[in-house]
Every structure is written in C-alpha cells, then in structure tokens.
C-alpha cells in the first residue's frame, strides 16, 4: 500500500456527538448527555475521542457535529477545536443527515480529503492500534474510492449490535485485515448471534467509517438525492450571517434515516477493516462494571460502597465521597447524581430509557 497518504494534510476527522444518552440517567441529562460525561478518569467521552486522534487529524481539520443546544458545551470541552468547526444541528435527523452535512462542509473547506467519521461516545483501547487501523482504512479509501466501515471482532454473541459479514479478503500489506463487505446484518436473536460469532465471518458494526469526500458525496447524491439537494447549497452560507437560518431551512425537512440504511447498504464498493482493538459503545450502566474491581461479594462501582449480606450489585456515585449502604439485596444497580437516584434490577436496566422518555414527556427532565 502506498505511503503517500499524509493524515495531517489528507485526513479530516468528523466526530458525531449528537446522542442523547438516555440509558445513563440520572447522570446523563438532556442538557448533558453521555458523550459529555467523565465516566472514565478525568476526561469526558468526547475529549477521549479527540485525544485518540493526536498525531493524525489536527484540530483545524476536525469537525464536531452535535445537537444545537450542546454546541457551546462542545466548545468548552474542546477549546483547541476552532469554534467554526463545531456544527450545531438545529434538529435531530439521524446519521445520514449528519454525514451529508459534514460532507458538504468538507467539500467547501478542504476539497476532497478522506473523512474519518467517528462516534463521540465509544471507548476504544489501545490508542496505538486504533490509529493503525484508522490509517489503514483511510489510505485504502484514498486509493480505491471505496466506502469503508469498521468491524469489531466480537467478544461474545451480542444481540444489541448489528453485524457486518465479511466477503472477499483484500491484500494491504500493513497487517490490518481488509475485506469486501458481503452484507449488513440487523441485530440478531441469541441463536443467530451465536452462529455469527462461530462463523468467523461476522464483526460487530461499530458505526465508524472512512471514505473520500467525493466518494460519499456521489453516493449521497445517488441514494439520498433529497439530502444532497437541500444541503449542498449551504456551501454558499458557510461562515456567513445567513448560516443559522439557512441550515434550519435545509435540515428540518430531511428524512430521518441512518447512513447505513440510507447509503451503505445500497452502495456498490463497500469494504471493511476488521478492528482488533477493544471497543465498547458503553451502552448502559452495566457496561461500566468491567472497569471496576469487585469486592468479595461481587459488588462494584464508584463511591463509598458499604455492604452487608449484599452481592453482585453495581453502584455509581457522581460524588466519589458519597456513601451507599446495601443490606440484604442483590443484583441491583444504584446510581446517585445530585438530587436524583436510580434503583433498578440488573435485568431491567434497558427499561431506564423508557422511564426517561416518559419523564421527558411529562416535563420532569432538565
């Protein structure tokens, strides 16, 4: 593979930071979703995402797309990113709209770079292997014009993720496995997930991508012509006083559809890198357990946990000095944040999202 690709000059990082993070209530709120929380150490999920790009895409070639109400928060957490590179979406229209808008801005500002489209709320380790994989995909996308997606080697037969089925292997010479993508697979049931993992051909769909701006622009014009028609005129408004008004007028009528459904599943030349780095979408409170050591009874989490005849509970406190006492209970998840407390069984954590939606409809959330 050619070494002519220079990420400092040829790469633009596009970070999608528009998620609502409802599964992390009560720590996550509409005013401060998961990507803005310090769940690991003293850096937020968004900051960790940008940290992983160190030495690759410089701040001036990094775009962050987020909910309009969070643009100021993004700028405060990422002061090194130029303010104009933080794009506040006026309404939520799913990932196809975010990618299409980022494509228009990349064309206007940078010409035809390779875009690395990343998510702001995933945990990835080690950074060195992530960067090696990203560069391999970016170089191949630059040379081939293919649309690249990142597949994660499954750690277990997950039913909460979509899968990518690998087709013909492709030679790269850099130690990273590349494939033509045979098929996108929807979230499976348990039996199907086990078959996927056993086959060795299937990877988790990470929701990360790499492609030339011209390649994704052509695909959007072909498969989502309405997106292209409405958003491409925004090139003339970029940086002007008309930007906010024009963006709302263009964005609001767009169909809500993901980039997978809208483009990737229909495009001809779609390829996959199989990523060997550790990856988690940190989908809920139980996903944090693996990062905390259990006590003798299997209780784990943050805060000052005191337990008597209590086991396999997960406790998370925003204030590390806060004490939570557990007596005679097991398999609970307890979360403390400000004046809000969540208590649920381990088996019901997926219901938190429904509770938050109800509270939001009733005006009980910030």
Outline:
With 366 residues, the protein is of the alpha/beta class.
Written account of the structure:
This protein is an alpha/beta fold and 366 residues long. 29% of the residues lie in helices and 27% in strands. The protein has a five-stranded mixed beta barrel with strand order 6-9-7-8-10. It has a four-stranded mixed sheet with strand order 12-14-16-17, with no helix packed on it. It has a two-stranded antiparallel ribbon with strand order 5-11. Strand 1, helix 2 and strand 2 (62-67) form a beta-alpha-beta unit. Helix 4 crosses helix 7. The protein is globular. The N and C termini lie far apart (51 Å).
Structural class: alpha/beta
What is the number of E strands? Answer: 17
Order of helices and strands: HEHEHEHEEHEEEHEHHHHEEEEEEEEH
Unreliable spans = none
Mean pLDDT: 94
Radius of gyration, in angstroms, nearest whole number: 21 Å
Query: What is the 3D shape?
Result: globular
Oligomer: single chain
> Roughly what fraction of the amino acids lie in strands?
25-35%
Q: Spatial order of the strands in the main sheet?
A: 6-9-7-8-10
Helix residue percentage:
25-40%
Distance between the termini: 51 Å
Number of helices: 11
What would the keywords be for this entry?
about 375 residues, 4-stranded mixed sheet, 5-stranded mixed barrel, about 25% strand, single chain, alpha/beta
